[in-house]
TrEMBL record:
One of its GO terms (molecular function) is oxidoreductase activity. Residues 17-312 form the NADP-dependent oxidoreductase domain. Pfam families: Aldo_ket_red (PF00248). This is Aldo/keto reductase. Transmembrane segments: none annotated. It comes from Mesorhizobium dulcispinae. InterPro entries: Aldo-Keto_reductase (IPR050791), NAD(P)_OxRdtase_dom_sf (IPR036812), NADP_OxRdtase_dom (IPR023210). It comes from the Bacteria. It is an enzyme of class 1 (oxidoreductase). The keyword Oxidoreductase applies. Keywords: Oxidoreductase. Its EC number is 1.1.1.-. The keyword Oxidoreductase applies.
Length: 333
């Protein structure tokens, strides 16, 4: 796989990364050995950019990623995230369905120390603030992360799900290398809220998470019958009732374009995010789907195909909010 420079600070990553969250949480029970095998195969295929977070599990996913790359640390770029609060028994702290976020410098530094330990490394290549804490000035939080860069514990800094205003404030304190947002043919808000414009102006890389629309854009998901009872998509607004039916009709249109090109819908969706100038991090637990996803990095879309995709999946085409109300309340600060 070819590589690309993420942002303008010098971080080189594979053109497509691997989102590791689903190997440990969110989509039902996980299998550690399967996760380790998939991570190893990704490295063999040329993927070097691996994305995790302390919140995934919580903590379990960082431990899995750390275990997978013992003795291989110099071959990978590790990205993780901090910025949520946890209960004493290690669960995500919630207030009326809304996760509690924190940008408090002391908590952030402590969280990074925990991530370093679980990832079995002396330095994190890219640390994101997972969500923005509106009660702590972003300049204060970025100042703490910049201190960790100075101490050699972090190489580069990023933000996840931040507003254009917050991105500009943070970048003025310490250069940001990446901003991570949900971005796909299903979710194009970043094109319209100033975020993509801001990162391009400032020379910040853009990392697209959920480039497959939480599985919709694979074309394989037709209903919820085969989802595990603990799969969070059973509560996701885009998978409910008429939203589900409307979104499946959208997927049908995208599948037709993919079939005309001779590729899978998932590959078409990933290639679109790459051609848009972003680094996607599709997640999967299984080697079969990993190999399909990685092959998308070599697919080039013609102007006519891009125009057809624009017509089939314009901004706002997906029906329903992308998260529950509590999670939506953590976005865009």
């Amino acid at each position: 796989m070819h590589t690309t420079t993420l942002g303008s600070q010098g971080l080189v990553v594979s053109a497509e990364g691997l989102g590791c969250m689903g190997m440990s949480t969110t989509y039902g029970p996980s299998d550690e050995q399967e996760g380790l095998a998939t991570l190893g195969r990704a490295l063999d295929l040329g993927v070097t950019f691996f994305d995790t977070a302390e919140a995934y599990g919580p903590f379990m996913n960082e431990e899995l990623v750390g275990k997978a790359f013992v003795g291989k640390r110099d071959r990978i770029v590790l990205a993780t995230k901090v910025g949520f609060r946890y209960t004493e028994d290690g669960k995500l702290a919630m207030d009326d369905g809304k996760p509690r976020v924190t940008g408090d410098p002391t908590r952030v530094r402590k969280a990074v120390e925990g991530s370093l330990r679980r990832l079995r490394t002396d330095v994190i290549d890219l640390i994101y603030l997972h969500r923005i804490d509106p009660t702590t000035p972003i300049e204060v939080t970025i100042g703490a992360l910049a201190g960790l860069v100075h101490d050699g514990k972090v190489r580069y800094i990023g933000l996840s799900e931040a507003s254009a205003t917050t991105i500009r404030k943070a970048h003025a304190v310490h250069p940001l290398t990446a901003v991570q947002m949900e971005y796909s043919l299903f979710e194009r808000e970043a094109e319209h809220n100033g975020v993509l414009a801001a990162v391009r102006e400032l020379g910040i890389g853009f990392v697209s998470y959920s480039p497959l629309g939480r599985g919709f854009l694979t074309g394989a998901l037709k209903d919820l019958d085969n989802l595990h009872p603990t799969d969070f998509r059973r509560l996701d607004p885009r998978f409910q009732g008429e939203n589900l039916r409307a979104n499946l009709r959208l997927v049908e249109r995208l599948t037709e374009i993919a079939e005309a090109k001779g590729v899978k819908p998932s590959q078409l969706a990933i290639a679109w995010t790459i051609q848009a100038g972003t680094v996607p991090i599709p997640g999967t637990r299984r080697i079969k789907y990993l190999e399909e996803n990685v092959a998308a990095a070599d697919i080039a879309l013609t102007p006519d195909e891009l125009a057809a995709l624009e017509q089939a999946a314009p901004f706002g085409a997906a029906a329903g909010e992308r998260y529950s109300p509590g999670m939506m309340a953590t976005l865009g600060h």
